[in-house]
Amino acid sequence: MSEEQAEEEENDDSDENDELVKAIKAEKNKPRTHPPAITCEDFIVDISFSPCKNIIALANIVGDILLYEYSNEETKLINTLELHLKACRAVEFDDEGVTMYSTAKDKVIMATDVETGKLKKCYEDAHDEPVYCLRTLDNNKIVTGDDGGTVKLWDMRKETPVFNIKVGEEHVSDMLTNEDQKYLVCAGGDGVLNTIDLKGRKIYVRSEDYDSELTCLGLFRSDTKLLVGSSTGKLYLFNWKEFGLHSDDNPQSGVFTQGGGRLAPYHIMGQYIYGKK
């Protein structure tokens, strides 16, 4: 190879390196569209976003709640709350983001002031069985479901539950209501969807038995449709107020088919929300 050819090859390599460096710099200078990842030492069992601030609560398997402030540029740990003696099961903010509710395998329900980290309310031995899930109804009321199928409604202004009701023999995996808060839908480990009449304090309806655990619930289409997930990955679609039997499911296709139309999935914050396509 001549000296001239060697020089040309070196210049080509230099140009390629320059382009690579430029591409790397351009990528670094791109505006971020989402917060950086949060890495934790302990397994995270539940999360909750504050409704009014850029704060996320992470509940972990050793009983702690970690509060992170986030932006597209950074995530910053602002508080570590050592609340429970056993693994956390659920964490939720109230509607104003002022109070954070948590529960754990230790059967304790806690209400904590988000700003100060101080305990506002504590219910010890809140259930006979470990609490599995928790949902807020308003700034004073919450509902909890346990490993034995019991659901309780709590008012933070009272020392005992407003009422409790047995909805099944296995754990209550998720609960959900809508803005009217007339019905509380409960998904169970026994494969049954139980709906509680909150005002009447009684079971409104029990669904047919499904062949797998019902694991999660979601509302969409202006709260007129209820989506129920199962441990086998199968999804069931219910009309709101018609909780006895699903109106559609997705056994194979991965999408719902209803009335000749097609319901396509939309991925929002880690959940699939289905809308007509």
UniProtKB/TrEMBL annotation:
InterPro entries: WD40_rpt, WDR55/POC1. Residues 1-18 have a biased composition (Acidic residues). Keywords: Repeat, WD repeat. Residues 1-32 are annotated as: Disordered. WD repeats lie at residues 124-164. Residues 19-30 have a biased composition (Basic and acidic residues). Pfam families: WDR55. PANTHER family: WD REPEAT-CONTAINING PROTEIN 55. This is WD repeat-containing protein 55 homolog. It comes from Manduca sexta. The lineage of its organism: Eukaryota, Metazoa, Ecdysozoa, Arthropoda, Hexapoda.
